[in-house]
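Lab notebook, bench 4. Continuing the backlog of folding jobs that were queued last week. Each job is logged with the same field layout so the records can be merged later without manual cleanup. Today's entry covers tRNA (adenine(58)-N(1))-methyltransferase TrmI, a 257-residue chain. Filled in by technician R.K.

JOB TYPE: sequence-to-structure
TARGET: tRNA (adenine(58)-N(1))-methyltransferase TrmI
LENGTH: 257
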Amino acid sequence: MGGVEGGLVLLKDQKGRAFLVRLRPGGVFHHHRGTVPHEAILEAGPGGRVQTHLGEPLSVHRPTLEEYVLHMKRSATPTYPKDASAILTLLDLAPGMRVLEAGTGSGGLTLFLARAVGPSGLVDTYEKRPHHLKQAVENVRAFWQADNIRFHEGSLEEASLEKEAYDGVALDLMEPWAVLGVAAEALKPDRFLVAYLPNITQALELIAKAEGLPLVLERVLEVGWREWEVRLPVAHPRFHQVAHTAFLVAFRKWKVS
Ligand SMILES: C[S@@+](CC[C@H](N)C(=O)[O-])C[C@H]1O[C@@H](n2cnc3c(N)ncnc32)[C@H](O)[C@@H]1O
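JOB STATUS: finished
OUTPUT FIELD FOLLOWS
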């Protein structure tokens, strides 16, 4: 089924609820207010509209990376997109760069990294749980067709990595201090390692464990992202917000002489 890459579309109903759908020949989308054949969705295409047989209008979209990560299947909780985009900035990523990541989880951050370094770059991602890796590979391949990701099954601390080969390291795992030594060795001098940590106690433990390694603490931050409800003439911050996701801890590598 052509038209939309990978057959992936995002449908939005009148209440703004979003549904990620993989189109297939003969398929039918089920909404609680009726059904729509996949063929009709394909024909409407991104930016178009369809109606269920009960008259519910649905808009058809090519999912953005943010929408995709928030709606894809998850085996582990993906890095929140607002934080993933901040990680790209803190890592100072550009096309052609090489990045090291652990753990792969559901592949959310992997997608952000792969898109930032582009087809000429490379992401080496490590995941110790096979069923997480399987889900991540499926998630990534359904959205991103470029061949710039190498998936590795296993713990990062047990990987044999080339020294000073990576332009950036992104860590989203429970105990990043366990991998800090190997990750620091694999990082190029003057480049960045960023860890995503839900608890401040984890951030403090990581900073303490970095002592003695060629890493200097650059920044600790949270990404604020306050959504507003706008229904003219009324506008106010949404009553339900994502209050806290994680702390980002960024280190820069010293040159080891
Ligand atoms: C929170 S999830 C990562 C989510 C991912 N950033 C995403 O956006 O989908 C953390 C993952 O790290 C994996 N993990 C934990 N310790 C690890 C290690 N030492 N090496 C490799 N993977 C590890 C876990 O199995 C889990 O899947």
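OBSERVATION: The chain is about 25% helix and 30% strand.
SIGNED: R.K.
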